[in-house]
Amino acid sequence: MSKIAELNSMGQSIWFDFIRRSIITSGELKSLVDKGIMGVTSNPAIFEKAIAGSSDYDEDLKQLIPTEKSIEKIYEALAFEDITLATDVLRPVYESTEAKDGYVSLEVSPHLADDSEKTISAAKRLFETVNRPNLMIKVPATPAGIPAITELIGAGVNVNVTLIFGLENYKRVAGAYIAGLEKLAQGGPTVKDGHPINKVASVASFFVSRVDTSVDKALAEMGNTDLQGKIAIANAKVAYAEFKSIFSGARWQQLSDKGAMVQRVLWASTGTKNPEYSDTLYVDELIGPGTVNTLPPATLESFIDHGNVAATLTEGLDAARHQLAALANLGIDIEAVTHQLQVDGVLAFAKPFDALMKSIEQKREKLLSA
Fold this sequence. Notes:
about 375 residues, TIM Barrel, eight-stranded parallel barrel, 16 helices
C-alpha cells in the first residue's frame, strides 16, 4: 500500500497544492489521482507561476486577447479552463466518496478580502460559471469573510475557507459554517445548481509553517531555542481538538441527522520553510482522521520518498498546550502573531495576482502590436 493510500485509510485525504494546464493535459494529474490524490487547491500565487511563468497558455491568450477587453476576464477564462478540466478529472473521486472529496478550489480575488458583499457576489458568480458540483470557492477567513461563509454555505456553495492561522479565528470559521448549514437546512440552496445540506462541503484551511517562521524569529531574538519548530504543530493540534469538540454535541447532531458533513480541517502551507527542519515535518506530525493535507509538489514527492505514516495528530495534546502556555509566558501573543499572519497572507496573495494581471497586460500589448 502506498503512503498516500495509507493516509487515506487513516481518514486523512491528501490534496495537491498546485495547478497548471500541462499537468492536466499530459495526464499527470490523472496519474496522481490514480495514486490516491483526492483533490486540488490553487491560489493566486500558483496561477501567477503557471500563467506568467510558462508558455502553456500562450495559444489561448492569442485567441482571447482580440475578443476580451478586460485583463481580469482574460485571466478568468484561462483559470476557468484549468479548473473545469481539473474538476472533470477529479469527478470520479467526488462520486465515489459521495461528495466528501474530489474537489478543486478556485479563489475569489484577494482584493475583495475586506468586502463581504462583493466576496459573496463573486463567489456565487464563480460557482455558477464553472458549473461543476466539485468546485470549491476559496474565501479568506478575514472579518469580512466570516459572514460570507455563512451566506455561501446557506446558498449551497462549497467553500474552502483560507488563511486561518489562529485558534480563535478557526472557531469563528467553524461557527460560520454551522450557521450556514442551519440556514441551508431551513431554506434550501439559492444559487443555480447549489447543493442541499447533505451535499454541500467545506474545509477550513489552517496554515501551519508560516506560524513557525514568525514565532521562531521572535524566539531567536530572545535567545530561546526550546520552542523553535514546535509552535506551529502545537497550534494545529489544539485547533484539531477544538474541531472534534465543535462537531459533536446536540447542535451539530441536529445537522448531522440531516446528512450534513463536518467541515474538515485542511492543513495548508505544509512545505517546510526552515531547511534545518524535516521537509516532511508538517505532514508527519499532523496525521489524523477527519482532516485534509494539501501538499505542494516538492513536499508530496518528499513524503512519498521518506515520510512517516503514523497517527500523530492526537498525540501530545497536553504537551502542545504547555508549549503554547510557555510561549505566552515569554510575552509572545500567539493570537496577535496569527492575526498579523492573516493580514500579511492577504497581501501575499494580492501581489502575485497583480503581477499576473500585469503580465497578461504586457502579453496583450505585445500580441496586439505584432
